[in-house]
Amino acid sequence: MAGKIPATVITGFLGAGKTTLVQHMLRNANGKRIALIINEFGDLGIDGDLLKGCGIEGCTDDDIVELSNGCICCTVAEDFIPAIEKLLGRENPPDHIVIETSGLALPQPLVRAFNWPEIRSRVTVDGVVTVVDSEALHAGRFAHNEAAIDAQRSADDMLDHETPLSELFEDQLACADMIILNKADLLSAADLGDLETNLRAGVRDGVQFVRAEMGAVSPQTLLGMGIGAEDDLSARHEIHHHHHDHDDEDDHHHHDHGHDEFETFQVSRGVIDDVESFAELVAQTIRDNDILRLKGFAQVGTKPMRLVIQAVGPRIETYFDRPLTAEEKGKTNLVVIGQAGLDRLAITKALAG
User: Fold this and answer.
1) Of 56, 131, 333, 353, which residue has the fewest beta carbons closer than 10 angstroms?
2) Which residues contact 218 (CB under 8 A, 6 or more apart)?
3) How far is it, in rounded angstroms, from Cα 81 to Cα 92?
4) What does the DSSP 8-state code read for residue 300?
5) How many Å apart are CA 296 and CA 38, to the nearest integer?
6) Reduced to 3 states, what is the DSSP secondary structure of residue 133?
7) Mean pLDDT of 28-35
């Protein structure tokens, strides 16, 4: 791996706290030149905009590459390889590349892409970090979703009876070199210990577990693992049964893994009156429509600061991150993510107040 630029893949389910983890890492990079590739499911770049707007010293817009409106593991040739080549070709290349995947992405195809001839000799996968929402997992969020989806799918013999949410989560665990038990402060020590024990039983030997609050993990822990994961693919077995690889005439990999099971759309409205009432409106809309994830930005009354809204299931987080730009004033933009079949009209109407 001598001479290769290390790259860290950060994966994890929707709302686990990947962007918060990356923000903390950048704020504590101590001069290390870190470039970011941010992938989002949906074409409103919430996570990339959060990172660009956070005012971190030494992190410029040129250091952040956004790949929006497409799962990174499905667009390796079209998007990911060119993005890596652009970063590697800079006059002053980064010391480290961090790739934050969409919560709907499979990490294995992304790791496999580092074996492509265009980049294999110049970059290596330092490690794969999977971020887990400890509280949601302990509360059985996936078990609840599995039951609902299995019941729906079992009625149709033409459909795969496996649950996509559980498959995605299991694949993210199977590929991990490090698992971050994020939001650990929301569980008791005993519950957190039980959760870690259960997860350890289902992952490879040697996978590190790190407990974190608000994504506060030092860069020294996240970066510099030296794994070379692209040379260790056989140990990172894929569970997701919608994933099929084959080689074309250029020996490049393509696949299909059924993202039609999810859908995402945007909702736009004007200024919101106050944070508390809008947060309750969002929570009620999520409960009424079984929304998996909702995130976005808003202006509150005449306040000059931008409000960030992050929702995972019924849990809502809001905070002001920076002054509004001229283009953002008077606007609220949200991204809604859920299982296919969301009632877009009803959700849009509900969020409009």
Assistant:
1) 353
2) 28
3) 19
4) B
5) 16
6) strand
7) 88
Six token digits for residue 182: 């994020």
Nearest to 102 by CA among 58, 179, 49, 46: 46
Whether the pTM exceeds 0.70: the reply is: no
Distance CA 66, CA 37 (A): 6
- Residue ranges per domain, the chain? 5-257, 262-351
pLDDT 10s digits, 95-128: 999 999 877 778 888 898 899 888 999 999 999 9
Selection from 107, 105, 103, 153 nearest residue 133 by Cα: 103
pLDDT score for 314: 63
CA–CA separation, 158 and 115 (whole Å): 35
Pairing mode of beta strands 96-100, 5-12: parallel
Q: CA-CA distance, 282 to 154, in Å (whole number)? A: 31
Domains 5-257 and 262-351 share a fold: no
Q: Are 61 and 41 contacting, i.e. CB atoms less than 8 angstroms apart? A: no
Q: Please check whether residue 93 is in contact with residue 119, taking contact to mean a CB–CB distance below 8 angstroms.
A: no
Instruction: Tell me how far apart the alpha carbons of residues 308 and 296 are, in angstroms, rounded to a whole number.
Output: 6
18 touches 11 (CB < 8 A): yes
Fold of 262-351: Hypothetical Protein Yjia; Chain: A;domain 2 (3.30.1220)
Burial of 82 (0-12, 13-18, 19+ CB in 10 A): middle
- Measured distance between the N- and C-terminal CA atoms of the chain, rounded to whole angstroms: 55
Q: Percent of the chain having pLDDT more than 90?
A: 38
**Quick one: angle between helices 344-351 and 275-289, nearest 10?**
160
CATH class of 5-257: alpha beta
Confidence label for 140 from pLDDT (cuts 50, 70 and 90): confident
